[in-house]
Amino acid sequence: MSLTMADRDGWIWCDGELVPWRSANMHVLTHALHYGSAVFEGERVYEGRVFRLAAHSARLINSARLLDYDLPWTREQIDEATRAVVKANALASGYVRPIAWRGSEVMGVSAIGTTVHLAIAPWAQEGRLSVQPKPGGIKVTMAGYRRPSPEVAPGGAKAAGLYIICGIEKDRALNAGFDDALMLDWQGRLAESTGANVFLTMGGRLVTPKVENFLDGITRRAVIGMARKRGWTVEERAVMPCELDDAAEIFLCGTAAEIVPVGAIDTHRYQVGPMSGTLMADYAELVRQPDCEGFGESGHFAQPASAKAA
Fold first, then answer.
1. Which of 158, 170, 210, 229 is catalytic?
2. Which residues does residue 73 pair with via DSSP β-bridges, in sequence order?
3. Which of 306, 286, 282, 304 has the alpha carbon at shortest distance from 296?
4. What pLDDT score does 130 carry?
5. What are the CA-CA distances from residue 73 to residues 25, 79, 109, 307 (Å)?
6. Domain ranges of the chain
7. Is-same-fold flag (11-123; 138-286)?
8. Exposure string for 263-297, b = 16+ CB within 10 A, e = fewer
9. What are the tens digits of pLDDT across the range 130-142?
10. Active site residue 158
11. β-strand pairing of 205-209 with 234-237
């Protein structure tokens, strides 16, 4: 297997057709490369099916709309394209990256007049895409950067440009011997890690930060649904850093990470306990159900009415 993402065998779906992996390129003056006008998704393949595919495709469309452009494909068309490229690569398990971006017709802050492109690339998951579980839990540190306020950036969009501070904090954490970093929001409340949502167990309850201008993860929604099916109380509320002292268990969750118990946040120590273990087992079963491609228990991301057929 090549060590680079550019030099591989396989197929990528790009603007309506399957193209050889090495031919899926764009120009160096593409608007998204210079100004961050790209949105993307991260999806997982289990036994040949993409978990919560419909929800991911709908969120991609919604993210683009939050950046003030429309994708010229419907959610159903994106779903079908994803299935087609997974099949073309004979991928039974792995990761899928859809990305939509604004093209090279215009070079300047304004992207008016650019063409919108969409590519979907699947591959066998490998390397350091996300944080991985460890015996006794992963080690996390507190990040320096905070998630922006709604007046600063559209935090509900999975937009490429919003991940720059996540990348900086992830690198800082790895270089300091940690596995990830936990970020606060603009008001000093717990928000998320650099690429996953966070849950705490407190007094037999499951507590997670209320989504306010950071990503409402699809795996986060699945965890809440699984916990409530077990009859557990789930609280979505403001969570302050001082409450880390009161948590018995902490775990991160995301599409690439799945569910990852935390063993330490700086000087705080936690057990890899029964609630985390139960949810990990439940999730492993959930993602392999035959009907796993739908929206799940927590509803839809609204598809913009202006999304049109290609």
1. 158
2. none
3. 286
4. 72
5. 20, 10, 25, 6
6. 11-123, 138-286
7. no
8. bbbeeeebebeebbeebbebbeebbeeeebbebbe
9. 788 899 999 999 9
10. yes
11. parallel
Q: Return the structure tokens found at 102.
A: 């604004």
Query: 82-116: per-residue pLDDT in tens?
Result: 999 999 999 999 999 999 999 999 999 999 999 99
Instruction: Please state, in angstroms and as integers, the Cα–Cα distance from residue 308 to each residue in 68, 137, 186, 303, 304, following that order.
Output: 15, 45, 36, 11, 9
Write down the architecture of domain 138-286 according to CATH: Alpha-Beta Barrel (3.20)
Are 280 and 259 contacting, i.e. CB atoms less than 8 angstroms apart? Answer: yes
| Nearest by Cα to 158 from 229, 255, 292 | 255
pLDDT (average), residues 266-286: 96
One of 3.60.40.10, 3.30.360.10, 3.20.20.210, 3.30.470.10 is the CATH number of 11-123, namely 3.30.470.10
* Structure tokens belonging to residue 38: 């790209």
